[in-house]
Structures are given as structure tokens and as C-alpha cells.
Design goal:
alpha+beta
């Protein structure tokens, strides 16, 4: 800490009365390193607001609602404020401590004298004294061989940990909200595909029934068509249930009850953004190691552990302190027949405290702190490996899913053309119902594969961005 700041704060402490609200004043401005609200690091120019009622919910709005409602975000923010206060406590160790003591006393002394040798018997005398006193003591540690500095470095590192954990929690909230939003969109896309399949199956059933009634078709064809139609109905009902489940999950993610209806934009199988990756995996891994919140937290924990080693070593070293006291006493008694009405005293000096022996605890404390630092160093290396694996896995998954986007699109187009041909052949009487049923089944499978391909690509993209520590409100445009 700067000497001028120490002097200024010392004067303020000495001249201002102590009060219960003193902690509300952030003298050392440690809260400047903590966000103003739980969601401030990601809100930027946005603010918490209610869901739109006149239009469907967009992805960024769902994420914003989730951030504003997430209890884990509020908890991480509160823990960051706890560490900011701990840093203030570490800063306050550089300032003097001043204590005032005041009191009122009344003493009674009763003495019995034995004068029996003088034929006077016993004589009892009582003496009453009263006094009002006050004392002001000062203790200012001037030098402690780095103990306070190590404690402050540890508190500062733990504040960095808390901020990084808050960022990591917000990233997790965004990922969960985006995944819940896309899960609902995918469920609705699956429902639309199931409805189209049901409609196609119904048309085939109508055609097969008409042919059988006209004598141009067989009963087996009609029964197969009926079976296919009933199965399509089952799939459609199941898909509708999945939509309701996904809607409840998204509502809960946004801090609403599961039964609150959620409207989102119409599901589309088009893909936003680029399907291919511009950066190589090596570059992405390096970027993740620079900005991943979990790695920032792991590095700060290692810094805090190393500072704790220095603090443990300094704890067994001497300290030099400036001490002083002022006393004022106003007694009421007589000494040698002279009334005593008051006394005053003062002390000032420099005190050297040398720890000599504490049962070998100092060595064990240092060994414990060093072992904790070694553990944090291993934890950091493990976190780096896990981040690289997450980036590698997400990168490779995204490459494969991006390639399957075009494959699924072409598969769906081929299946639609095949169904059109099979319908025409069956209608003209040159094709069998088995051909039509196979084409219908192939189209239903192609529709499912297309929804699955888009869903997997979106999920892989989100996971890659999350592994880089880059999730924010603009994730829908990434």
C-alpha cells in the first residue's frame, strides 16, 4: 500500500467515530473488481426484462432471461463480494489499530484492626473510592518480513478466482439456456416432420383404400397402408409430448414454472452462420488456454497457494510495531491526608516481537502450505489437459457434423424425389405399394436425419464456443 494512503486513512480513522455502518464504506475500493450485478459481465447494454407477449421468443432473449433468473449466478456474485471484503481485511492490516476503553468504578475496602493488646478491642474502618478512567491504545505493525504482503497477495488471488468462477458460471448458464432453446426448436422440427410423415401416410392409406374399393388394389395393400398410418400417428403423438417436455425445460431454465407456455420462432432446418471452421484446432486450443475461465481460476488458485506458502514462512518471523497509549484517571480518595483527584499517563515506543518456539508448528504449517501449492499446480496442469481435450473433441465433432449437414440435405432431397416417383408409379398402376411404402419410410427417416444433423451441428458449435470460454449474448450470431 502507498504511504500517503496509509497516512490519510489513519487520520480518518483517528478523527472519525467508529460505528456499525463503517463496513459500508469501501475505503480500499476492493469492490471495483467485482461486477455491479450478478449478470453485469455479460449484459453490457442489455437489461433484464419480461418475455415478449406479441412475438416469439428469440435465443438471445431466452439467454438473457436465464442469466437474470439463475440462482447460481447470484451465488457466484455473492462469493466474489466475500473475497473483495477479504481483500479489504488484508489491506486494513497495513493500518494501525486504535482502541478506546472507558469506565466507572466504585471500590469499597473494609479493614479490621485488632487493638486487644491495648485494651481497645477491634476497630473496623471502611474506605470508599470511586474513579472514572479512560485509555487510548495504539498498535501499528511497521515491519513483519512479508507476512501482510503474502496475505494480501493471497486475498487478491482468491478474488481473481471468484471473478473467474463467476464468469464460468455465467458461461454455464448461457450454454444450458442455448441448449434448452435449441432442444425445443429441434423438438418442434421433429414434430413438424412427424406431421408431414403422418399426412403422407394418410394420403397413401386413402389411395390404397380407394384402389381396393375399386377392385384395382389388394386388401393387403390397404392393411399395410393403415398400419403405416397408425405408426405415423404414434410418432406424431410422441413428438408432441417431446415438444411439451422441452418447453417446460426451457421455461425452468429461464426461472419460470414448467407449465408456463413458451413461444419461440418457427423451427427451420436452415443453418445460421458458417458450417466450416476458419481456425485450426491448434489455434483454438491456444485461445482456450488464454481465456477459459476455469483455467484463469486454476492459475489464480495456484497464485493464492504460493502466497500462502510465503505467509506461513513469515508467520514465524519477528514483527516490529509502534505502540502507544494514553490514560486518564479521575479517582476520589485520600493518600496521606491529601485528596487525590486525577492522574494522567502516556506511553510510546517500538516493540519487537520474536517468536522463539511454538512446538514445531511453524515447519508443519509451511509444509502443509507447500503441499497445497503442489496440489494446485497439478490441478492447473490437469485443467489445461481437460480444456485441450474439450476443444479437440468439440472441434472434431463440429467438423463431422458440418460435413453431415450437406449429406442430410441431399438425403432429404433424394428421398422426396423417390417418394414422388413411387407415388406416380403406384397411381398409374405400374408400381407396387411396397415400393411406395419403402419410399415413404425412407422419407420419414431422411427427415429425422436432417433434424438430427442440424441439432448435432448446433450442439457441437455451442460446445466448441463454450470450450473456448467465448459464450455471451451474441452466441446466436456465432
Amino acid at each position: 500500500m502507498k504511504p500517503c494512503l496509509i497516512a490519510a486513512v489513519s487520520i480518518a480513522v483517528l478523527t472519525m467515530p467508529s460505528c456499525a455502518n463503517a463496513q459500508a464504506i469501501d475505503v480500499f475500493r476492493t469492490l471495483d473488481d467485482v461486477s455491479a450485478t450478478p449478470a453485469t459481465p455479460l449484459l453490457r447494454d442489455a437489461s433484464c426484462r419480461a418475455m415478449p407477449e406479441d412475438r416469439p421468443l428469440e435465443l438471445d432473449e431466452a439467454i438473457l432471461r436465464a442469466i437474470c433468473a439463475a440462482p447460481q449466478a447470484r451465488r457466484a456474485w455473492a462469493e466474489a463480494r466475500v473475497q473483495a471484503a477479504a481483500l479489504g481485511v488484508a489491506d486494513s492490516a497495513y493500518l494501525p489499530t486504535v482502541n478506546a476503553t472507558v469506565g466507572v468504578e466504585h471500590d469499597t475496602l473494609s479493614t479490621t484492626y485488632d487493638y486487644s493488646a491495648f485494651d481497645a478491642g477491634e476497630i473496623r474502618r471502611s474506605q470508599n473510592t470511586s474513579s472514572r478512567y479512560g485509555m487510548l491504545t495504539l498498535n501499528w505493525v511497521l515491519f513483519d518480513f512479508g507476512k501482510r504482503d503474502a496475505a494480501r497477495r493471497r486475498a487478491s488471488a482468491l478474488l481473481v478466482v471468484a471473478d473467474a468462477v463467476q464468469d464460468e458460471v455465467l458461461q454455464s448458464v448461457i450454454l444450458n439456456a442455448a441448449q434448452a432453446f435449441y432442444a425445443l426448436r429441434n423438438a418442434r422440427a421433429s414434430l413438424d416432420a412427424a406431421r408431414r410423415t403422418e399426412s403422407i401416410a394418410q394420403e397413401s392409406f386413402v389411395q390404397a383404400s380407394a384402389k381396393h374399393a375399386a377392385g384395382a388394389g389388394t386388401l393387403a395393400d390397404e392393411l399395410q397402408a393403415r398400419t403405416s398410418y397408425r405408426r405415423a400417428m404414434l410418432d406424431r403423438v410422441s413428438a408432441d409430448g417431446e415438444v411439451k417436455v422441452a418447453s417446460g425445460a426451457l421455461a425452468v431454465t429461464m426461472g419460470l414454472d414448467a407449465n408456463v407456455p413458451v413461444r419461440i420462432d418457427s423451427p427451420e432446418l436452415t443453418v445460421e452462420g458458417q458450417a466450416e471452421l476458419d481456425a485450426g484446432v491448434d489455434q483454438l486450443i491456444d485461445e482456450a488456454k488464454r481465456r477459459q475461465p476455469k483455467l484463469a481460476a486454476a492459475r489464480a488458485r495456484l497464485d493464492a497457494a504460493r502466497a500462502n506458502v510465503d505467509a506461513a514462512r513469515a508467520q514465524g518471523r519477528p514483527t516490529i510495531a509502534l505502540i502507544g497509549s494514553m490514560t486518564q484517571n479521575s479517582p476520589s480518595y485520600q493518600q496521606q491526608s491529601v485528596p487525590v483527584t486525577g492522574s494522567r499517563g502516556s506511553t510510546i515506543g517500538v516493540q519487537l516481537t520474536i517468536p522463539l518456539f511454538e512446538g514445531f508448528a511453524s515447519g508443519y504449517r509451511t509444509g502443509q502450505a507447500q503441499a497445497q501449492a503442489d496440489a494446485q499446480e497439478a490441478a492447473l496442469h490437469d485443467a489445461e489437459l481437460q480444456v485441450s481435450l474439450e476443444v479437440w473433441t468439440s472441434y472434431q465433432s463440429l467438423r463431422a457434423d458440418a460435413a453431415n449437414l450437406s449429406n442430410s440435405r441431399e438425403l432429404l432431397a433424394d428421398a422426396r424425389r423417390a417418394l414422388d416417383v413411387a407415388r406416380g408409379r403406384y397411381k398409374e398402376g405400374v408400381g407396387t405399394f411396397t415400393e411406395l411404402l419403402n419410399a415413404q419410410t425412407a422419407l420419414a427417416d431422411a427427415q429425422k436425419q436432417r433434424v438430427l444433423a442440424v441439432s448435432k451441428w448446433r450442439s457441437a458449435r455451442l460446445k466448441l464456443v463454450a470450450s473456448l470460454g467465448k459464450l455471451d449474448l451474441s452466441v446466436s450470431q456465432k
